[in-house]
Write a structure and sequence with these properties.
Elements lengths: L5 E4 L9 H10 L9 E10 L3 E9 L4 E11 L2 H17 L4 E10 L2 H10 L5 E11 L2 E10 L18 H8 L2 H14 L6 E5 L4 E5 L2 E2 L3 E5 L4 E6 L4 H9 L3 E2 L8 E6 L1 H6 L1 H14 L3
């Protein structure tokens, strides 16, 4: 077996591997950042009296946007301020989305991480370190998340989500058939915990017990399927369980700390055992 030596390239000052080149690579395949199933919404978006956002990415399933700033070389204070400023402008202009600031740089220093760590929990901020690697006569970009946004606690609807009803989800978001899938999953949940009912909110269908939210799982009805979200920490054990099933697994939602699955009626019928086990694990870990 031939061993290929990897040579790291310093992009700052490089005649070809410039910031526009990095933008082009990410814009062509936003998933390369490792932040989930993202799509390109805009690039070089002009900000009122504040310059341009390098890239604006959007989650393909959730109402979430990522304001991405790219810097060759080492991160500095002005880059941090600019990234946060763009994030703040966008979240004010488009409050219907969750927003996350993303810094992509070649060299993310420990001092930078210490400073940004102070914001984490108040400002959703992700730091991604990139490396340009020469492999023979080819160049590859490698992205590593060195600071992730703080995982939010359990979904509660204490004034955060407008209450709706079943008809809203049947007519506005999903169908009678896809909303009925939430009933079937609730029946599975009742095999290990009684007293729970569906609670219809504007952005998700949650669970309630004695009138109080208990959202260890949440549902989002679509026209063709039901999205099941289970609040569980990422683990090899859970990933193996999912890989061994025939469930349609989506990218892990790091923002809310949830595994997400697209389910149809056949998926529930054919995977009852694994679904019950996973939802029970989510119930046991809820609030921890």
């Amino acid at each position: 077996m031939q061993v290929v030596k990897l040579e790291r390239i310093d992009m700052k000052g490089h005649p070809q591997l410039n910031e526009k080149w990095v933008q082009d690579i990410i814009a062509e395949d936003p998933a390369i950042l490792g932040l989930g199933d993202l799509v390109l919404k805009d690039r070089e978006r002009i900000q009122p009296r504040a310059g341009r956002i390098d890239l604006l990415l959007q989650d393909s399933e959730l109402p979430r946007r990522y304001e991405v700033e790219i810097q060759l070389g080492r991160t500095d204070e002005s880059h941090i301020i600019r990234t946060i400023e763009y994030w703040d402008i966008e979240r004010r202009r488009y409050p219907q989305y969750d927003h996350c600031a993303v810094i992509v740089a070649e060299d993310i220093t420990s001092r930078f991480l210490n400073v940004i760590g102070l914001f984490n929990g108040f400002i959703p901020l992700i730091a991604v370190q990139m490396k340009a690697l020469k492999i023979g006569d080819q160049v590859a970009l490698d992205f590593t998340t060195v600071l992730d946004q703080l995982t939010l606690g359990p979904l509660d609807d204490e004034g955060e989500n407008e209450a709706t009803d079943r008809q809203y989800w049947v007519t506005k978001k999903g169908t009678e058939q896809t909303v009925a899938l939430a009933d079937k999953l609730l029946n599975l949940i009742h095999t290990f915990e009684s007293g729970l009912s569906l609670k219809y909110n504007k952005f998700y269908i949650g669970l309630a017990k004695n009138g109080q939210p208990r959202n260890f799982v949440v549902f989002r009805a679509k026209k063709a399927f039901l999205q099941l979200g289970m609040k569980l920490k990422e683990s090899n054990e859970i990933q193996t369980m999912l890989d061994d099933s025939d469930l349609d697994v989506m990218d892990y939602d790091k923002r809310w700390g949830m595994y997400r699955i697209r389910v149809a009626l056949k998926d529930i019928n054919q995977n009852q055992e694994v679904l019950i086990k996973l939802m029970r694990m989510a119930a046991d870990n809820y609030g921890t």
